[in-house]
Amino acid sequence: MDPTPHLRAILCAALTAAATLAGVGPAGAQIRGYVLDRSNGAGIQAARVTIFDAAGDSLSLSVADADGGFTVAWPGGAGTYTLRVQALGYEGTSQPIEYLGEPIVVDIRVSPAPVELEGLEVEVEPISAYLDRSGFYRRSRRGTGHFINLDGTDRPIFSRTAQMFHRVPGVRVDAGDEPYVRRAQGTTFRGVACYPVLVLDDFVVRTARAVAGDPLLAFDFLMPPPADIAAIEVYSGSALAPPQWRSLENDCGVIVVWTRR
Q1: DSSP for 153-205?
Q2: Can you spell out the DSSP letters for 75-136?
Q3: CA nearest to 107, candidates 90, 115, 95, 116
Q4: pTM of the model
């Protein structure tokens, strides 16, 4: 009988015992299990599972997966260790683990502990679906004109729509309540009144200045009252205005008025 296999078995057992006494665990030894919510049994993703030795030194770490499952490689030999679990929104917990040289399976339940955050102040600008579809917000971000957004705000305290243009840069209002811009003519330094194209809810309603004595072309007749206006766009020159509102008859800019919906 060949004694070699028997001798090999004895030698292997001796080496394993020596390794255990020396404080080195068998290869592949591990602790595995799940970190669960004590209130509903759900797995806790990203929970940190750490093993500490008797001196309080961290030896091994694992982060739980989407189901709360974890696997920690055993870092040492037989003995008592501490397993600590930490997860955002839960109370931390620690428990002793007695390792005897065999893999350990354990489920750890932790109690919810909501994290109280400091109060946040969020300012949200009202968004009108109608103005959004019309492209008002997109054009206002480009900044090629002057934009007034009245949607979602208190109704303006004006009796006539023309009065709303007194504070618009580059625009003046004449004695007949007609908004206009200045255009140089020849050597005249002060320039002349130049009356822009008028657009109401994407429709061009006037391409030139109102004919004197024709009330049907007057600015305040064509435009809605201030309380019904959601937004205004003013372009001081036709080249700055979107192509759909430009006019070959008029290079005095464009005024666009959007009504509340």
Answers
A1: SPPP--SSGGGGGTTSTT-EE-TTS-EEEEEEETTEEEEEEEPPEEEETTEEE
A2: -SSSEEEEEEEE-TTB--EEEEEEE-SS-EEEEEEE-B-PPPPPP---------HHHHHHTH
A3: 95
A4: 0.51
Tens-of-pLDDT digits for all 261 residues of the chain? 444 444 444 433 433 333 333 333 444 578 899 999 999 999 999 999 999 988 888 888 999 999 999 998 877 778 889 999 999 999 999 999 888 878 889 999 999 998 777 777 877 666 888 999 999 999 998 888 899 888 766 555 778 888 888 888 888 888 888 888 876 554 444 567 788 889 999 998 888 755 555 666 788 888 898 888 999 999 988 788 888 888 777 778 899 999 988
Cα 222 to chain centroid distance, Å, stands at: 41
Return the domain boundaries, the chain. 29-110, 129-259
Helices (runs of H) and strands (runs of E) counted in the chain: 4, 15
As its CATH architecture, domain 29-110 has Sandwich (2.60)
* Integer Cα distance of 112 and 91 in angstroms: 6
Q: Which of 135, 150, 146 is nearest to 235 (CA)?
A: 146
We find that the CATH architecture of domain 129-259 is: Beta Complex (2.170)
Measured between its terminal Cα atoms, the distance across the chain in Å is: 101
Helix, coil or strand: residue 257: strand
Sign (positive or negative) of CA dihedral 219, 226, 175, 248: negative
- How far apart are the C-alpha atoms of 106 and 129, rounded to whole Å? 54
